[in-house]
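Async update (no meeting this week)

Hi team, since we skipped the sync, here's where things stand on the single-chain job. The sequence we agreed to prioritize is pasted below, unchanged from the tracker. I ran it this morning and attached the output directly underneath so nobody has to dig for it. Comments welcome in thread, and please keep replies under the output.
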Amino acid sequence: MEIDKYEHGVFSWVDVTSSDIERSRKFYADMFGWQIDPGAEEFHGYSMAIMNDRMVAGVSPTMAPEAPTVWSTYVDVASVDDTLAKVTAAGGTVIAPPIDVGESGRMAVFSDPDGAVIGLWQAGEHKGAGLVNEANTWGWSELMCDHPDKEKDFYASVFDWGAETNGEGADAYTEWKVGDRSIGGMMQKPAEMPAGSPSSWVVYIMVEDITEAVKKLEGLGGALYRPPAEIGPGIFAVVADPVGAVFNLFQPKS
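Output:
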């Protein structure tokens, strides 16, 4: 699906921060067929991944030795500064204060009350991912947390998201809503996750054949953390790239 503009409160971009940017660029280019040229020095080497002449994701070097190798999700907002005021009022914490990224836009990063980190993007020339929900592109972002009810209140205050929950207890799954549209998900961290694992936003990348995608990923030096498993909309697997960034593969039902 081609997209040229996002509305306030909708996820609009994902990127991976890497401690080995060259290795990450090569892996994602080989894995998904993305064209990833080295980024400009003025933007610290931040690289755009291109597919079918449209931007699909970012690949960024870590800005500090202690920074994690991780996938991140960004929400489009009308005003980064106004949204951050809502974040702090609702109990969130500013991680990176607002900064202008040339003419591309304005960004900030915060953590929610459960500690999950997410970004804000106020679009300038860069509107967000131009191709989504197709094979080899980003298709979904999901919050895995300890306290879903607390998170519902927080994100309703910050983005005015609705929350539609199916199931109960640890098996409950919530879909975040902007109007009548589902834009992302949330679930309680599963019991099989290691104790002390932080709450986090997880990125799903779509594939046509998850079995073949997992084989390809492992052949390129990636790791399989959770084998393919069926859920309502399709089949997912939890994987990591060769540098350690965790993400999910997803094959939708045909």
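Quick observations from my side:
The mean pLDDT is 95.
Residues 155 and 161 are 6 Å apart (CA to CA).
Reply here if anything looks off.
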